[in-house]
Amino acid sequence: MTDATTTIDTALASIKASPKALQVLRDLHQQALAEPAFVSTAQPITSAIDKFVALDPDKCALVYLLLRSSGARFVVEAGTSFGVSTIYLALAVGQNAAAASGAAAALGDSSSSGKVIATENEPTKSAKALTHWRTIGDEVEPWIDLREGDLRETLQSDLPAQIDFVLLDIWTPLALPALSRVHRNLRVGAMVVVDNFVLAAKGYTELQAFLDDPANGFKVTTAPYEGGLLIAVYLGH
Ligand SMILES: C[S@@+](CC[C@H](N)C(=O)[O-])C[C@H]1O[C@@H](n2cnc3c(N)ncnc32)[C@H](O)[C@@H]1O
């Protein structure tokens, strides 16, 4: 087995999903890992227009397990690209919603729901993401609300009253604008995960200052995944 295949299979072993969903993820990760590495602060952003720039498989597995362990049902993802990380988010949200609806039904309540708000401003990318989600079908599609356009507009309104989880896998100048738009809707205990927080530290100075300001209610740690994966928890005021 190649290194990439081992990395992917190890990550997929952490996921509860149908054989079809696992195969789609396996294929997409293979294609994504075959691309040259891309860091948004180091290269012209236009050079990534036809690239996955997908979250690494081990980080996707961590994100899925964080969502499952916290029971997250309302999630925001900035950005989506070809929809790889979104698949993990939607699997977890769908499974958490099913678990919550089982528990609620036992108490006579039939109102459990969930949603991944995904954002992508490059139409060719969002079209591909939709195709990938359609291939998997009901396991992920009903849980995704894809907002096409600039996240500074698409995340401006119509957000869940309480957001449980935010994935910031976006060009660094967009990270703080994305977080600012969802900040007031974060529930206490919500997690915010940011990719490449160490590798792209120069691009994240404003986000770091925002997270470090006690007035904004976060505590943070950086997990030693490749490039550094920031995990911030919103503890409120
Ligand atoms: C690192 S990629 C996301 C990868 C994705 N999370 C995955 O794992 O497959 C970042 C994406 O953000 C998109 N993007 C850049 N600026 C944006 C903006 N202003 N609004 C929405 N999306 C944007 C880019 O087109 C790119 O596809």
From TrEMBL:
Pfam families reported in the protein's UniProt record: Methyltransf_24 (PF13578)
Protein name from the UniProt record: O-methyltransferase-like protein
Transmembrane segment boundaries: none
InterPro entries on file: SAM-dependent_MTases_sf
Annotated source species: Hapsidospora chrysogenum (strain ATCC 11550 / CBS 779.69 / DSM 880 / IAM 14645 / JCM 23072 / IMI 49137)
